[in-house]
Amino acid sequence: MNSPKRLNGDAVDRGRAQTIDEYDFAFDKWSDTNRCAASDLIKPKTGGRRIWGVLYKVSRAGFKKLKGIEGPSYRPQRMSVVDATGATVRVTTFRVRHDRRQPGLHTTEEYVGHIVKGLRARGVEELEPAYIQHVIDVAIRTNEQAEDQDAGRRQNALIEKLRHP
């Protein structure tokens, strides 16, 4: 979020947050920047779970910049989350547009590791130990279904190492 290519330190980290509604975590949109499938929240027909993430305070200018970075494949969506203090907060996130979701992609250890490290750094593993394992499981299943089976296998061997800090 705060990399020089994105908001260059302008986003204020407000700690962990968890969605109130249930979603599924997916890697379903190719990212040219990351050279892998990027993450997304999808609304399942049945099931799902509350999703953990990081809450950032972003200025209007920062939001406009993010909207431009995310491009037409993403749509901003309002939702409610519970922040690290237990307060319910209305936020805006970006979700992949349904018609832009892509099956058969692979993701990478570097990308998944960024998510896992961020969740661990904010104490999610202590609150819900199975959640990080779930993120890793979704990444591995994604790679098992990748059109590029060699890339999927290579990355899965690396992603498995994320299970233990």
Topology:
Layout: E1 12-19, E2 24-31, E3 36-42, E4 52-57, H1 60-70, E5 74-83, E6 88-96, H2 109-121, H3 124-127, H4 129-144, H5 149-159
Antiparallel strand pairs: 1-4, 1-5, 2-3, 5-6
List keywords for this structure.
Hypothetical upf0131 protein ytfp, alpha+beta, four-stranded antiparallel β-sheet, 165 residues, two-stranded antiparallel ribbon
Can you walk through the features of this model?
- It contains five helices and six strands; from the N terminus they run E-E-E-E-H-E-E-H-H-H-H.
- With 165 residues, the protein is of the alpha+beta class.
- It has a single domain (12-163), classed as Gamma-glutamyl cyclotransferase-like (Hypothetical upf0131 protein ytfp), CATH 3.10.490.10.
- The mean pLDDT is 95.
CATH superfamily: Gamma-glutamyl cyclotransferase-like
Proportion of residues in extended strands: 25-35%
How would the global form be characterised? globular
Task: State the helix count.
Answer: 5
Q: Quickly name the level 1 CATH class.
A: Alpha Beta
- Gyration radius (Cα, Å) is 15 Å
What is the rounded distance between the termini?
A: 22 Å
| Main pleated sheet | 4 strands, antiparallel
Query: Total domains, how many?
Result: 1
Structural class: alpha+beta
CATH-level-2 architecture: Roll
Query: Please, what is the average pLDDT?
Result: 95
According to DSSP, the number of beta strands is 6
- Helix and strand pattern: EEEEHEEHHHH
What CATH calls the topology is Hypothetical upf0131 protein ytfp
Helix content: 25-40%
Largest sheet, spatial ordering of strands:
4-1-5-6
